[in-house]
Specification:
Elements: H1 44-61, E1 68-73, H2 75-87, E2 93-97, H3 100-112, E3 118-122, E4 139-143, E5 145-146, E6 151-152, E7 167-170, E8 187-191, E9 202-207, H4 209-217, E10 231-232, E11 235-236, H5 251-267, H6 269-289, E12 294-296, E13 308-313, H7 316-319, H8 323-339, E14 356-359, H9 366-390
Parallel strand pairs: 2-3, 2-4, 4-7, 7-8
Antiparallel strand pairs: 1-9, 5-6, 8-9, 10-11, 12-13, 13-14
Helix pairs in contact: 1-5, 5-6, 6-9, 8-9
């Protein structure tokens, strides 16, 4: 019963939310002092900041020179939907869904766009669909990293270089933390509030030359809202990919994204970011290996996320409870950690199986992950004691 005693060490930063995510180490509001507030985003200072954000994104992520990068409205969701509404139609589409956000793109394609030829490849939380069954003569939409399931694709080897269709990849919890082969990806999207801990409401849209060719040769069968329009007169609106945003961005958020990008570049770029996330996820994996009451939601080690690490309670006393009681047990643990001030927002996503989701991206310090883990044991012991008392 020693686990009932509070651990001696506490995380210095208890923010383990999977979005918005923790700010970079050492962040303070003074990082935003150079934001051109009260100025038009189309004035020279604003345009320069937006262009710099695009250039630094390319540099840190290693985006090929012939790919376009644009800042778009409505976070990652807006970027994915902009791509779907603008590009889909000429071919059938394969939609991969193994967690809630992938399921959302299925809904958009089937119920909103009402595509006639949409094939859905699904898997339960913790698993991937059979990637060998994907038909690349069709367009393909998938999440690289399932934020709500902790399951990621292991690599891009399953995507052929000579594919006929386009690959549209929602990479919002993978960008800046996992190695992605852009030569296999025609559309890549992410949001600022994920891996680099930026502020919300802005999305990034990265287009390959093949995606641009589709945009300029295809007219969608449905009307496009203004915020989705990437072409004019059958030609790409190049200004969008130079910082001339479709709608008004927050220059405060832009400044914050620039700060995160400069921090990332300063610590060693993408390789360093991946290493930090791997170290964080590795600390959790070591703890899971020696802890009997907890396991990973992702079943295969090769497909486990190094950012949105999702855990389930495997202790027999809890697993024997009905689903509602299991969810209540996990929620009580999360609440106890929140009230102790050691872990905020680590409950499983509302549509996912009950358990925990610990953000392990590069802005989180490994020392904070290591300090958190004994507190999870404490919270479990505390809640398990209530089961024993009720028995």
């Amino acid at each position: 019963m020693s686990n009932l005693h509070e651990p001696a060490t506490r995380p210095e930063n208890p923010r383990f939310s999977s979005g918005p995510c923790a700010k970079r180490p050492g962040w303070s509001p003074t990082a935003l002092d150079d934001a051109p507030l009260g100025r038009s985003h189309r004035a020279k200072p604003g345009k320069a900041k937006l262009a710099e954000a695009i250039d630094l994104t390319r540099a840190v992520l290693g985006v090929p020179d012939d790919y376009r990068i644009g800042i778009v409205p409505a976070s990652d969701t807006g970027a994915v939907e902009m791509a779907m509404w603008s590009l889909l139609g000429p071919r059938g589409v394969d939609l991969l869904a193994w967690e809630s956000f992938g399921a959302g793109w299925v809904t958009d394609a089937v119920k909103q766009l009402k595509l006639d030829d949409a094939r859905v490849l699904e898997a339960d939380y913790g698993k991937l669909p059979d990637l060998a069954t994907v038909d690349f003569s069709r367009d393909v939409i998938f999440t690289w990293n399932g934020t709500t399931s902790g399951v990621r694709v292991p690599n891009a080897d399953w995507i052929p270089a000579d594919r006929e269709g386009l690959t549209i990849c929602d990479a919002t919890s993978a960008a800046f933390a996992q190695s992605m082969d852009f030569s296999k990806l025609d559309v890549v999207t992410f949001s600022w509030q994920k891996v680099l801990g930026g502020e919300a409401a802005h999305g990034m849209l990265i287009l390959s030359p093949r995606a641009v060719e589709r945009l300029e040769s295809h007219t969608p069968a449905w009307p496009l809202p203004k915020v989705f329009r990437l072409t004019k007169g059958g030609k790409l609106i190049e200004g969008i990919f130079k910082g001339e945003t479709i709608n008004t961005p927050s220059m405060l958020c832009v400044e914050d994204y620039l700060d995160a990008l400069k921090w990332a570049r300063g610590i060693g770029g993408l390789d360093a970011l991946i290493a930090r996330a791997d170290a964080n996820a590795g600390a959790v994996a070591d703890w899971v290996a020696r802890t009997s009451w907890v396991g990973f939601l992702a079943e295969e080690p090769a497909t486990r996320s190094n950012t949105s690490v999702c855990l389930k309670i495997v202790d027999e006393r809890v697993a024997s409870l009905d689903p509602a009681a299991q969810a209540a047990f996990a929620k009580a643990m999360a609440n106890a950690l929140d009230q102790a001030g050691v872990a905020y927002d680590i409950g499983a996503y509302r549509d996912a199986p009950s358990g925990f989701r610990i953000w392990c991206g590069a802005t989180v310090e490994t020392s904070d992950i290591e300090a958190l883990l004994p507190w999870l044991d404490w919270a479990f012991a505390k809640q398990a004691a209530t089961l024993e008392e009720a028995a």
